[in-house]
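Batch job 17 of 40 flagged for manual review because the log was empty.
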Amino acid sequence: MPLAEQADRGPRRADWMGDFASANRCSSNFMRPSTGPSTQERFMKMAFPSRRRLMAPAVAAGVLAPLLVVPTAGASSVPLVGNCSQRAEAVSYSDSLDKATTVDGIGVGGLSAITYDKVSRSYATVVDRSGTQPARLMFVRDGHTPQVIKTTALKRADGTALDGTNFDGEELAVLPDGTFLVSSEAEPSIRVFGRDGVQRGELPVPGRFRVTPAGEAPENATLEGLTISPDGKYVYAAMEGTLAGDAPSNGEVARHRVLVYRADGRGGYRLARQFGYQADRGNRIAEVTAYGDGRLVFLEAAFTSGVGNTARVYAVTGANRATDVSGVQNLSTVPHRGLVEKQPVADLANCPTLGAPGKQPQLNPLLENFEGLAVEPGRGARHRLLLISDDNFGANQTTRILRIDARLP
């Protein structure tokens, strides 16, 4: 049966945004031990319908039929009727950066962040795990065919080079004065670099966040998300994994800490507090991006061998007023109401393939190892999301830029 006919005859898709909200309101049993699925897992199934059910016919044919959406009661009179979800629509993708070469003859790969840089009028990204090569920022001119227009090597304050043996660049933000804030999960650290790539300073990171045995953080799962609020007042740094001291003992889903820094009025930032975030079971935090006052977009990701990548986008509001968990020894003991509440935006497995090729098994060939996310200013609630994937310098992975239009709360 043709896919279009299947879509016409199939059941109408439930109002998954409303179902998610209803389930979230009824989460009083969240911390209660249970032998069955947790409350979070039950409302996750409602928020993001089974990918096997939605994707199997589409992937087999290489095309994903758009999903029917029932508008939420009370929604905007002109809602964004997306092809990924009610809130999101995949617009286009580009693989032009994959295994490309820069103007200075440097191979493009391992790109783990994306953020707009007003000074260069381009998107800045950082190279993840560059091996013995210098750690670098790359600047991408976005257009019909994205391309790297320049690179900047990162150096210590004394001018000596940083490389993949002592610096694991993960995320990137541009400060109001045009300097760069870059997180490395090797230690971890959050360093300030000038436009010339030379380190000018560093933000404090609590001792608990150091990689074991110095702290409680697992190796290669520390400060993966980094962003600055549009007004420049707050910096948010999110842990990819869970601290050893926060590990739950009752089988519940692990929580993640987000560090919140506030501008000190003297050109620097001081650590103000922490808040807790709960990713879906098995997911890590790949990125966090601020798009308004206390408004953040979280990119959750995972990889399963033989199945492929998972990438889900959530929105959080009121992050600047979230409960401070700095003094909490074990985050798993915090009631669900003490964590920030997230709202689903899109599960990328449900998007159309857009004709994207895949180099390895995926539920949707559009999926890749997406690790960077930028939010372009939009009109009202509508925004353009740009996601970039980290190919880990591997032949079976792709550097891909994906554009999604989304209605954010």
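Reviewer: the log was empty due to a logging misconfiguration, but the result itself is present. The helical segments are 3-9, 16-25, 39-47, 51-61. Unflagging and moving on to job 18.
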